[in-house]
Amino acid sequence: MDEEQGEAGLQNSEQAVEHKKKQIVVPGELITDERKKLGQHVFIENGKIYSDALGITYPDAGVAYVVPLVGIYLPQSDDLVVGIVERETVKGYMVGINSIYPSYISADKCRDMLSKGGIVSAKVNSVNEINEAELFDVRVFYGGEILSVSPAKVPRIIGKNGSMLAVLKNGTGCNVVVGRNGWAWVKGGDVAKLIDAIKLIEAESHLDNLTVKVEELLKAKKVE
Amino acid sequence: MAKKEEKKDYVKSGKRLDGRKVDELRPIKMEVGVLPNADGSAYIEWGQNKILVGVHGPKEALPKHKQNPYRGLVRYVYRMATFSVPDRKNPKPGRREIEISKVSGEALEHSVFLEKFPNTAIDVFVEVLDSNAGTRVAALTAASLALADAGIPMKDLVCAVGVGKAGGEIILDLNKDEEDAPDAVDIPFAIMPRTEEIVLLQMDGLLSRQEWQKAAKLGMEGCKRVFEMQKEALRKKYGKMEQVSEKK
Nearest CA to CA, how far is B111 from chain A (Å)? Predict the structure, then answer.
């Protein structure tokens, strides 16, 4: 499970490490008038590339892209998500995943029956043209609670190769599974401390040396 | 017997009633992310106008027959608080509020990539807490900020300003006294600044062709000044980062 999360977090944070020069852009702001490959959250008009979101761009990068600072979650294939079972249908379950629509899990893909209100993690199998998702690879959680974070900050909470998540787990003793949709399942350990650390990450996700700051925060709390 | 109203000088030696120049805006203050329970929010103080905007969504559009499988909807709700005007305002949505909701929502629709969110609706709630002329342009400016704060993909921000005529002079950003002038013309003017596309334009009163051209030029310049303030307001929320990168 942890390895999978690491991969998901890698996509954004690896790009961030490569290029030091950062710039905040607002929607409609020019990123470059050069010809570049188009990444996420950009659009092209009359040969120029513009941002479509409030976010951070790296002008030196070979690909023009914007890492959004805010945003809702739209499911994508292979994302790991944490969800809550909302209702049962004839052949499966509808699971809320903090997106526009609840997503569907076929009963064939579940080893046990799910119950309404239960917490599960699953992978996104496919997404249709109106952003409805179908899930598979279900894992059921017993006990614990769900923390809600901004979906745009999830890559920072996981960190490169899951480094930040490892820091959080070691520092608080919590059992944590972070879904790409902005919900995290937490059980045991010092949850209050974890919430403090996550708040710090959310507030300063656009700054550098975040892992060090979080480590310091967790250490400082231990002494008390 | 009612006294005959004194004739006011709306522009006297380049200065207006409140001491502004002909092409000067009222003091404007913008802030984003003020409502924790909304997906995106903004607060604007534009002269005496005070407006709160909250954005929710995109979410499933209900009732279902309103859904469009090709694009999302923008549901813009403009309301004035009962205490926002000198006399108490009836809280029932009136003709004026319904009209403003319609035209402002359509103005915002031009700026959002709605085709990315089929079958959904984006709710924009505007609450005018205090008003003194030009609330619809202030509300539209703040609504665009709130959409950006919600992380909704947009082609451009929408910035708006009022232009018009009072006492025979073309002036920018009319206040209530100027709007009540006997020959007053009021034009809410909203653009997308990158392409200079006009997304909202209304007018009551009469203007000559020359006057209109002058007003349009003034409005375009005013909008661009508002746009700079919008960008600053959005960046201010993440201002710390710029300090860090400057050190490097």
Answer: 9
Q: Hey, CA dihedral for A98, A99, A100, A104, is it positive or negative?
A: negative
pLDDT digits (tens, 9 = 90+) for B62-111: 999 999 999 999 999 999 999 999 999 999 999 999 999 999 999 999 99
Topology (CATH) of A145-223: Ribosomal Protein S8; Chain: A, domain 1 (3.30.1370)
Give kind and range of the element (H or E) at residue B214. helix B209-236
Q: Is residue B6 part of a domain?
A: no
The pTM assigned to this predicted structure is 0.89
Yes or no: say if A72 and B39 are a contact pair by the CB < 8 Å rule.
Answer: yes
| CATH number of the domain encompassing residue B232 | 3.30.230.70
- Chain A positions touching B152 (Cβ under 8 A) are 72
Which run of H or of E encompasses B247? helix B239-247
> What ipTM goes with this model?
0.88
The minimal CB distance from A28 to the residues B58, B120, B156 is found for: B156
Pair type for strands A42-45 and A63-64: unpaired
